[in-house]
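Here's what a typical entry looks like (PilY2 family type 4a fimbrial biogenesis protein):
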Amino acid sequence: MSRITMTFALAALLGSVTQGAMAETIENNGPVTMIDLKESRIRVNDTDYVLPNRVQVNSMPAIYQLREGSVISFLAESGAPPTITSIGMLQQPPIQKQTRSTNAHE
């Protein structure tokens, strides 16, 4: 291997290590106020986070177990937007029952 090739390889390796070291871990908790399944995003404390399907609770993607009002605790990696890497469900809101109309004309 030539000296120039080795220099570029070393520079690329150092660049990838430096970028990985720059990722900051965020720890947060709060109620979920928005869920966007299409974009895999949720909002907690007025901040949007990506919640990928690989983040699971009880062998199921966590995003499919959330409801607006769910209280969660999580770790995320900084980014635009931050990506959740670990999640814990602290409290689920009650499931709202649908009421049937008592009016026979509807």
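Residues 16 and 22 are 10 Å apart (CA to CA).

More examples are in the samples folder.
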